Structures are given as structure tokens and as C-alpha cells.
Amino acid sequence: MLEKIARWSYNRRWTMVAVWVVVLIGINVLAGVAGGAYSNNFSLPGTDSQRAYDLLKNRFPQQSGDTADIAFKSSAGVTDPSTRKTMEGFFAQISKFNHVDGVASPYAKGGEQQISPNGHIGLAHIQFNVTGDKVPIPEIKKMEALAAQTGGTGLTIDLGGNVVTYAEFQTPGASEAIGLVAAMFILLLTFGSLLAMGLPLMTALFGIGIGLAVVTLSAHFLTVPNFTPQLASMIGIGVGVDYALFIVTRYRQQLSQGMTPEQATVAAITTSGRAVLFAGTVVVISFLGILLMGFSFVQGIAVGGAAAVLVTMLASVTLLPAVLGFVGNHIDRLHLPHLLHRGESSPRESFWFRWSRLIQRRPAPVALASLLILVALTIPLFSLRLGSADAGTGSKARSSRRAYDLLSQGFGPGFNGPLLLAAKLPSPSDVATLKTLSTRLATVPGVAGVTPPALNPKGDAAVMSVFPTSSPQAPETTQLVHTLRDSVIPSATRGSGVEVLIGGLTAGTIDFSDQSGRRLPILIGVVLLLSFLLLVAVFRSVVVPAKAVVMNLLSIGAAYGVVVAVFQWGWLKGVIGVQSTGPIEAWVPMLLFTILFGLSMDYEIFLLSRIREDYIKTRDNGLAVANGLAATARVITAAAAIMVTVFLSFVIGFDERAVKLFGFGLAVAIFVDATLIRMVLVPATMELLGDANWWFPKWLGRLVPRISIEPTNPEALEPG
Length: 720
What we know:
23 helices
């Protein structure tokens, strides 16, 4: 089928290009007209925090929306008449904004505790009637502008809280541009030709253009976080360039062996193109595996990432052969002097063939040294702490960070992440139980303060806030939430019929981290099993797939370890612009695993498919490994360099700690995988295992379907 697709695309190149252009324009027009809005929906069915939110939404609707903080500091004192007049006027103006239900002022009755002990810092709460992702970002920007305008000499006003943090999320387009420029440079060094360089970039741009439109459309029926376009762009650029790079390289090799352009195109698609389809399928499976986590927050990420890879795969085996029909024998035209590589037909004369033979002379010590390095990089992983970095890790140029620092200075870090206690009361008189609970909470270590219970109009629900002594991201706060849930609240409400649930952003983050930790092994297990079975079907071996899975886990473990060392421990954090340390975002490990496992498997498939192709012809394992490495190493290295550069461009181009963390983790893993794993550990271990690499029981061969990547029919030469 691939041969037919390649020939049709080649011979009807104008039609194929026109189809892709129409699809690109059409789907983007559709996305512009009918696209949905991005949303950070952290709903966690079955958790205490979600039940608390549902209770407040039903019985205390004015408390079910999110809140924002107004932190202000006056050199004359918060209670100074002039300061009070200015701030009350400011609160009145804020109350008129859309979705604002009211402002809890420190000047209102009972608001004394919203004034710091030294009297110079005040705190007010903006109560919204919707969740933070539903508050229009322009409204928050107007509030910030009003705060800057109202403040002046001796008076500082800053807005904070998760609603403001969400609105301040930056999405600069420079990162994508940096990644594309870097890809152009590396491709030029790899091919030496401007024309050859442009083909992978064209494939990537079509994939990104269509993939991002699909992401926007999917926001209609899925929760799509606001950073999904950046993630899809990262992946789209990386795999788009990679897949086209492998196919174009094979095309040039076939031309150098005397094939016509049509024959070379068909050969490239039926060999490297087949590997692209299989590798891309593994990446798509990995992305869709995220759905097993059961979080609405990541559904859009899973679909968006899978869509970007799927579109890129299709473009690689349909659009690319059509464009190769226009290029023909002129693939190396517009070349730069001294950069155009010599013929692609002599891999045994290459550096990588000699490198493989060097490793094969001493495979045991090389493999041991590689493993020791990987283990050393992985060690910090055992200190991994999941959570969510709070506004205290953001840039000091942001209002949310300045508000965070003001509240920490005036009230303590816990005031930046209060715990919201929602209570279901059998009768209004049961509020006495909550007063007893309030007294008990005030004595718990780690609690800085407790607000009195506030009843709803019906008297069947109440809400109260607990302020920890530690910051929202601190491990002490996590321990406090578990202590309150497990012992303090049950003992204080036992026998009363009162149900008290701990909600709010801080508790929700803790619940999300706990559930992520519990479900991550399921995700890992399913993705590993499916990938292993697919590799068994392709390579007709048990040992090679098992080794591939283990090595991919080693590269991912090393990436996790480096991420923990930099973002949690603070090693070299200043080098990449991280201002403060904190826990690792709870969603990062699952996304890093699925994406990295899929991308790592790309390199594994491209390398092993060439090794197996040569092994079937020669039946010499050592020579097959050397030939396979020589044929693919330069391309894998170039592809990895492009991916690493693209991912690092997002580290440089964003102030967002989470995006930096994610991009850095991807870059580290791809770098380790393409160098230490593919170029050192794979040839060393395959030399040690010898023909055992291809052991495949005959009884298993009758059960496992054949999925062939090699262009030849291996029926008669199948090993084992």
C-alpha cells in the first residue's frame, strides 16, 4: 500500500500538494470560526477537594468561584484615613468588573485579621462567581492597570492568586521562531543544500499548521490547557523535521546508487517511510495513553499532541513524496561550498562505522561505563516531590509574584494558599460543631489562623478558611492537609452528622499530585506493554524489544533525575533562568514519560530497522550493527540536535517555570538518548548479546502477527 501511495503522490504531485494546501487553509478557517477556548479545568472526581467545590457550588454558589488577592502596602499604615479612602474607592471600582461577586475588604466588620500585625500591609479578596479559567484575561489586565494607576507614593497595590497567575501566562512566538532557525542551521550542516534543508521544514510547518487548528477545534469538547499550543508546536517541529529528515536522507542514498527519482522516492517511502509510520504510531499511542490517567486537565494535551504527530506522519508519506517529484535529481542544488556531503552510498567509510567497531572491541567496559553514568543521572529521581510551584517561583516583574511576597512579608507564606473548609450541616444549630472544630484547628501545629464559620442563607452549609504557616508548595502544607483530613476533622466532628471537606486550590493541587502518583504506574505499564508487543511484531525478536524498553526507561529516568536536580534542588538553576526552587509539577512526569518514550522509540526503530535489514542480508550481527549505525547515526544525531535545540528554545523563550521544566526535561532526555544510549550503549549491548539479539521462539512466531519494516520479504531468512 505504501508503494502505491508513494507512486500516486509522486505522479500526481500537483493534486497532492493542492489537497494539503486546501486542508491547511480550510481547517484553519474553520478553527478561526468554530474554535473553542483554552481552559485549565482541574476537576478531580472522587477527591475531597472536588466534593468541596461541588458542595459550595450547590449550597454556597458565591463561594464556589475562584478568588484573587489584593495585597497593598502603605508607608503611612493601612488604617491611615487617606490610605483607607483610596483603597475603598479601589475596591468599589473592582466590584464593578464582570464576574466579580464582591470584595472582602479589611475595613469591613471582622476584617481586622486581613491587616498585618505591623499595620502596614493589607489583604482583600476578590470573589469571582466563576472558576479562574472562565475569567476573561483582559478583565484581569484592566484590574492590574487600575492597581498601578491607583498606587502611588507610599502606596503599593498588587494583584495575586491563581486567577491572576493564569492571566499572566505568557505565550511569546519567539520560541517557535528560534527552534525553526536552529533547525534550518542544523539541516544545512547535515545536507549541505538549501533545497534539501527546506523539505523537512516544509513538512514540519504543514504538520504544525494543521495540528494547532485541530487543537483549537478540540477545545470545543475537551479541556485544552492554555500551554497546549506550545507543547504541540514543540512536538510538531521536532517530529516533523525528524521524519522528513530520515526519508530525505534515504532518498539521497537511493539516488546516489543510480535509481531514478521515482524509484528513489518509492524506495525511501517503503523503507524509511514505513519506519516513520510505525515510530509515529508508537508516539501517538504514548500520547493517547495519557487518557488512562483520567484527568480532564490532560485530555486536550493528549489529543493535541497525538493530532500533531498524526498529521506529520501523513504529510511525511504523502506530501513529501509529491514535493520530491518536483525536486527530482536537483536535491543537492543550491548547495553551499564545502558543506555538501560526499555520496551517501559509502557508510563503511564513515566515522560512525569506525566508531561502532571501536565500541565492539571493548563492549563490556563501555556498556558498564554508560550504565554508571545513567545511574548517576537518575539518582536525584528518588528525591522527586510532586506538587505545583506557587507564585513565589515566578518572575518578580509580575504582579502575582509581588503580591505573594507582600503577603508572605505581612502575614506569613501560608496566606498565599489558604485551605477552604466546606461543611455540610444537618441543621443550622450544628454550626456549634464547627466552632468547636475552629478552636481545635487553631491549636494544630502548622496552622497560623482560622476564620470563623460563615453560614449560607439556608443554614445547611458553612465555609471557613485555614491559613497554614508554610507556603502552598511546601511539604509541610501537604502533611498538614493529610493530618486534618485523617485525624483532626474526623475526631472533632465524630457523631455530629457534620461533614467537613477541605478544598481550594492548595488542597486540589495536593489531591492532583496524590492521584498522579497512584495512576502513573498504570500509564507506564500499559504504554510499555503495548510498545513491547508492537516491537516484537516488527523485529521478530524478544530480546531486542525488551532491551529497547529498558534503555528508553534509562534515558527517561536520567531526564527525571536532572530535572529534579535543577528545579527542585536548585543546581545551576540560574543558568536557565529559574528564580526559585519548588516541587515538580504533578502533570510533568506523566507527560514527559509518554512523549519521551514515544520519541526515544523513534530513534530505536530507525536504528534497529536498519540493523535488522542488514542482518537479514548478511546474518552477521556485528557487521549489521556497525552498518546500521553507520547508515543512521549522522541522521539520528542531526535529528536529535534539532529536537534538543527546539526544546531548549522554549526554556529560553518562556518565563513560565512549568514550560521551562518541561522543555528542559525533553531536551535532556533526547540528548542522553541520542548520544549515550543509541551511539554507545546499543552497539555495546548488541555486540555482547550477539545472535541472541534475534532470538524468537517458533511457537511465538505463530501467535504474533507480522508487521514488516524491511523492504525485502524476510520469510526465508527470518532469524530464530
